[in-house]
Amino acid sequence: MTTPLTFETIQRAPKALLHDHLDGGLRPTTVIELAAETGYDKLPATDADELATWFRTAAHSGSLVRYLEPFAHTVGVMQTPEALHRVAYECVEDLAADNVVYAEVRFAPELHIDGGMSLDEVVEAVLAGFADGEKAAAAAGHTIVVRCLVTAMRHAARSREIAELAIRFRDKGVVGFDIAGAEAGNPPSRHLDAFEYLRANNARFTIHAGEAFGLPSIHEAIAFCGADRLGHGVRIVDDITVDADGTPRLGRLAALLRDKRIPFEMCPSSNVQTGAVRSIAEHPIDLLARLRFRVTVNTDNRLMSDTTMSREMWKLVQTFGYGWSDLQRFTINAMKSAFIPFDQRLAIIDDVIKPRYAVLIG
Question: pTM for the full model?
Fold first, then answer.
């Protein structure tokens, strides 16, 4: 018999996560404790519940630029090797507790050198935290694989340097590259040197595009930069029209993305907070899923959105009436789109995801 689909049963289902920011997923208690340890005295609250509420409220701004402002506090307490290791370790613990079996967690090393660490030391601390977190999760009965994406800030001029960092650590846990930050005025084509370097080294990368800016951002990410995946990409809906009789018509860019199976790293709760969409009900994820774009479900920033993978999936179930087969498809879409080698992706799909969903579906 099919297992009833509830929030609790969704928590038991295996999940794959492609778009999660390390500095957007700290535990409120950890932020407070690290601030005390490192002498950071700018927190807006020192009670864990009050701080969690502040982050969620401040992030729900209707603007990507304002949404990014609270990150100054999480980044502010992540300036030592010990802090980075702890945050990475706890990230794995929290994801494993939600039955995430594979995750790619991204962060911007250039934001964590104020305490004197080199870029390499920053990445080493995070990777060590991930590795130790995996071991602890396995000991607790949760098998999880966590890999890292290094992110360059699109308003800065260090993208080539960060791309080189990704290549240096490609066999140590870093599986790809990303650019992030305010989209308007910072087109992805400004970083062509980094993307050309990555392609020359047969590396994989994703680009934040089509979140707070329109189709030109998506077009540049694909046509000029050669992105393997799109971070968010919600504005692709501007290239899709639906006739009065319900017939969808894809523009050339939308058709290209569907034909090429370009993955969309969609983050519903975050997209509402930033004003990319007005509500979950108006999110284009359902239209894109029905049109068979390669859609994935993600958390983006678990602290700011007060979310988990289970909560994101439950919201979609409640809003669009999805069943187990839909959640399985989103999960397999994510694993197909992961930046680890094909045989490793296939092993997680065939040996973990499908068998566990088979039990839930009945």
Answer: 0.96
